[in-house]
């Protein structure tokens, strides 16, 4: 995956790829609420023979808790099908620390468990002289824990973050994520942490090694984490439009953040994905949609005024122009909407 363009697939993605590395918040659910079409899309993918591994930057929860939530949302899941940033963080710590090393954990139960299972001693105070600070998200995190982290990092402890997501989607909107909380410690100490979570491809590589795969597909809602990790790790990435990043973000994405496929939701696993193709006079077409960049502005055409095919072809036209050195007026890129019919899979693979 070296060229930053959209791919096409004449067969459903669930048949082309044998392992899906699926993000959680904004993909399988939103906060504690289900996302319409998610359970059906994942069930259909499994029925087609695709193995699912849920890979999340959330380090606060145990895999058992995540699996239980997914199962309650009609997505049957075993704890072994969940890989968290906490587990990746503990694996990163093991690359430099010896078993038994003291680690100050700032985060939830999931990170505490993962660090202990890796063979380290968990401490809660900088006075314990930890060799490292592992910070992950927890909704209960408060100033005293952040202060202990700052004291330890300022004293020379290795600073490792489970992830650097600045925000996370909830049922009420977007709330501060681990990256925002890590930023407080970074601001106090001037130390930039190493990160185990996405956009690093570490978790994807761990999941593929653990479960085995002929060809894996990353599925996520954030370009700056999920899809950036796919690009950096050499995996194909599907962007579903149910979370943080929008279709407009796709069109304006730099090469390192671009998805390989785009779908309204997880139903996109069950349909073919047409590849945009160049046409006359600078136009690109995909299904009934068309787009081109002329005079630095994105122009949309064809018989499809909205939908996934229009998003795809807008991306193809914009990316081709920008990669060829042309300027693109961002004000010419509209908010590209996906209709309920697209979300149900109609028109997602014409």
From TrEMBL:
Q: PANTHER family in the record, alphabetically?
A: 4-NITROPHENYLPHOSPHATASE-RELATED (PTHR19288), D-GLYCEROL 3-PHOSPHATE PHOSPHATASE (PTHR19288:SF95)
Q: What is this protein called?
A: Haloacid dehalogenase
Q: Name one Pfam family in it.
A: Hydrolase_like
State any single GO MF term.
phosphatase activity
Choose one Gene Ontology CC annotation of this protein and give it. Answer: cytoplasm
Q: Which domain of life is it from?
A: Bacteria
SUPFAM superfamilies (alphabetical): HAD-like
Q: InterPro entries this protein is in?
A: HAD-like_sf (IPR036412), HAD-SF_hydro_IIA (IPR006357), HAD_sf (IPR023214)
């Amino acid at each position: 995956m070296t060229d930053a363009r959209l791919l096409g697939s004449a067969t459903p993605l669930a048949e082309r790829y044998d392992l899906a590395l699926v993000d959680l918040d904004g993909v399988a659910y939103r906060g504690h609420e289900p996302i319409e079409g998610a359970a059906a899309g994942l069930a259909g993918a499994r029925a087609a023979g695709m193995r699912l591994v849920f890979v999340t930057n959330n380090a606060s929860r145990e895999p058992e808790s995540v699996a239980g939530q997914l199962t309650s949302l009609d997505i049957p899941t075993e704890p072994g099908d969940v890989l968290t940033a906490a587990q990746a963080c503990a694996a990163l710590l093991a690359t430099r620390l010896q078993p038994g090393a003291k680690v100050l954990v700032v985060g939830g139960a999931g990170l505490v468990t993962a660090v202990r299972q890796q063979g380290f001693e968990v401490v809660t105070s900088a006075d314990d002289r930890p060799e490292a600070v592992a910070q992950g998200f927890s909704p209960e995190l408060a100033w005293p824990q952040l202060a202990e982290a700052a004291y330890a990092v300022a004293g020379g402890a290795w600073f490792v973050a489970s992830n650097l997501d600045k925000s996370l989607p909830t049922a009420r909107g977007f709330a501060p994520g681990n990256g925002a909380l890590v930023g407080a410690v970074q601001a106090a100490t001037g130390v930039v942490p190493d990160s185990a979570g996405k956009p690093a491809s570490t978790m994807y590589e761990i999941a593929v090694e653990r479960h085995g795969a002929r060809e894996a597909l990353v599925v996520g809602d954030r370009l700056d984490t999920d899809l950036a990790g796919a690009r950096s790790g050499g995996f194909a990435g599907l962007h579903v439009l149910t979370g943080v990043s929008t279709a407009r973000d796709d069109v304006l994405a730099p090469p390192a953040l671009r998805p390989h496929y785009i779908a309204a939701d997880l139903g996109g696993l069950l349909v073919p994905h047409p590849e945009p193709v160049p046409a006359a006079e600078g136009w690109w077409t995909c299904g009934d949609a068309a787009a081109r960049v002329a005079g630095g502005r994105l122009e949309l055409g064809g018989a499809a005024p909205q939908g996934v095919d229009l998003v795809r072809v807008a991306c193809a036209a914009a990316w081709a122009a920008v990669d060829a050195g042309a300027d693109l007026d961002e004000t010419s890129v509209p908010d590209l909407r996906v209709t309920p019919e697209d979300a149900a899979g109609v028109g997602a693979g014409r």
